[in-house]
Amino acid sequence: MQIVTEQRRKDIHNSDVPAVCAACEARHGGVCGTLSPNQLLDLSRHSTRRRVEPGREVVGQGEISDSYANIISGVVKLSKVLADGRQQIVGLQFAPDFMGRPFTRESALTAEAAIDTDICSFPRNVIERLVAEAPGLEHRLHEQALKELDEARDWMLTLGRKTAQEKVASFLYIIATHIDPENGTATEFDLPLSRADIADYLGLTIETVSRQITKLRKDNVIRIESSRRVTVPSMDRLLHVAGID
Amino acid sequence: MQIVTEQRRKDIHNSDVPAVCAACEARHGGVCGTLSPNQLLDLSRHSTRRRVEPGREVVGQGEISDSYANIISGVVKLSKVLADGRQQIVGLQFAPDFMGRPFTRESALTAEAAIDTDICSFPRNVIERLVAEAPGLEHRLHEQALKELDEARDWMLTLGRKTAQEKVASFLYIIATHIDPENGTATEFDLPLSRADIADYLGLTIETVSRQITKLRKDNVIRIESSRRVTVPSMDRLLHVAGID
DNA sequence: GCACGCCTTTGATTTTGATCAAGTTGCCGA
DNA sequence: TCGGCAACTTGATCAAAATCAAAGGCGTGC
């Protein structure tokens, strides 16, 4: 996330960039922050905003590379499936992340909204054109890719080597830290994923996820207000149970 | 991998780039291929080559971002450990990959050679300087990051959702396709990892890996010439057992 | 208000892979 | 050639998580 300077705010205000895009950039900088007002205007002409409901595909398997999108609000899950239907969520993207796979087309991922999600998407060719003009944009995309790579590798450690209990605690910690990044780590939050989704994220079954959540509750690591709402009395304790020390 | 043109070969030959670097670039292009002869000369002045023996750290945990390296030959494993010693290999890099985490420093990874490995490394600041001058270099690094991200996500599906049998078969397939990329998929090859490393890559124990290899042998999916040497009579059959259909 | 469906929880049982425990094999150095 | 050691294999047992099965909740529409 980048700091939007006062000068830049003015420049954008004085240009023809739609107010909605100016507001989006002010809020999270993101991919737009590396563009000049003119380029931002160009991008905004080709962008489309829409709300995606839970379970709805943002882009289909194999198509994710054809568009690029800022997540305005909400959570998107990226997943892969085996031929027999076994599924694994390989990434979660939160506002204000941006999504997409510029420059490569092979990836076979499905991206779908986990909860109500607003996205602002751009066609691939526009992004590629802007990348050629604005070197800062590619740098920004590169950083995003490295961030996702770090997250993926952390998650591989969790998938490969942690117990069910540690996995569930690790998941809760990830949600707590990502759900509202502007305000830091949350101690009370709504889970953006159903038990089935959590199971697909953790490489477990629904029943095991449920039992582990119950156990964390009985051990007073978390409180459950409703099936989706969780309170964490001590983040240190959660971290400890998650095996992150 | 990029094609090194005849003209470029001449340009480099006529410059002061050391023969060893010219040969390296001719062989795999890689990060060097995006640089002008002058820049390549600059880079070669700061590069150091060395052979790393199995089990030796290429860069220590937390330091990987301080240097950047081409793998000339061999295999490097990237791993993460939990406080109690449980370990997960989160990436394997083969020649002619290049390694490193430009622009971010947080990653806590250990990189060590799995077999005898020759690397050519450059200090971080030199790479960053060249990136500022040569936009093609950042593009190349970005592509590398996206490739690693794709591989990491494929592997997450394997770690989270495949059986021990499928995991081992998937591992053998990965090795077959990466061990000698110039000649395509190998049907007979040496495993670059010990059983313990394979276990750490697959999130299994040594014993389970051994049993599954024995089972693949008994099922005639593979032949075992020695504990490290494997022959795959039918790649389709291996793929099928790996759950990649 | 009630019934239906979906999500979640809980319980009983089974299975997969981990753990514990010996053996082999093969390599290196004496 | 022989030990010694590390890497690997095999076997017996155990435990964690999957599977199978059955109830609860909870929201929605009638």
Automatic annotation (TrEMBL), chains A, B:
Coiled coil: none
InterPro entries registered for this protein in UniProt: cNMP-bd_dom, cNMP-bd_dom_sf, Env_Response_Regulators, HTH_CRP, RmlC-like_jellyroll, Tscrpt_reg_HTH_Crp-type_CS, WH-like_DNA-bd_sf, WH_DNA-bd_sf
Pfam families in the cross-refs: cNMP_binding, HTH_Crp_2
Xref: Gene3D superfamilies: Jelly Rolls, Winged helix-like DNA-binding domain superfamily/Winged helix DNA-binding domain
Keywords: DNA-binding, Nitrogen fixation, Transcription, Transcription regulation
CDD domains named among the record's database cross-references: CAP_ED, HTH_CRP
Start and end residues of each HTH crp-type domain: 162-236
GO molecular function per UniProt: DNA binding; DNA-binding transcription factor activity
This protein's GO CC annotations: cytosol
Source taxon at top rank: Bacteria
SMART domains in the cross-refs: cNMP, HTH_CRP
Limits of the Cyclic nucleotide-binding domain: 31-148
Name used for this protein in its record: Transcriptional regulator
Organism whose genome encodes this protein: Ensifer adhaerens
Lineage: Bacteria, Pseudomonadati, Pseudomonadota, Alphaproteobacteria, Hyphomicrobiales
